[in-house]
Amino acid sequence: MKSQCQGGSGGSGGEGVYKDESYVQRNHSRGFSWFALADDLLATVRGKPGKDERMVLLTGLSEKFGVLNGNDTLLTFKAKQRTGDYHKNMDTDRFVDWMVYQLFLALALLVLEAWIVMDNASYHLNPAPSGVVPSAWTTKDVAYMFLDKWNIEHRKGRVPKGDNLDELKVIAHAWLKVNAKDKGMEYKVLRAGLLCREHSHHILLTPPCHPELQPIEELWRDVKMYVGRTKFGSRTWPQLEEDVWAGFAKYGTAYHSARKVARARGHEENYVTHGVYAPVIDLTTIPSTADLEFVDLTVDAQVAEVAAIVVAEDDEAEEDEFDNGEAEVDFGDSDVNDNGSDEDEY
Question: How much is the pTM?
Answer without folding.
Answer: 0.65
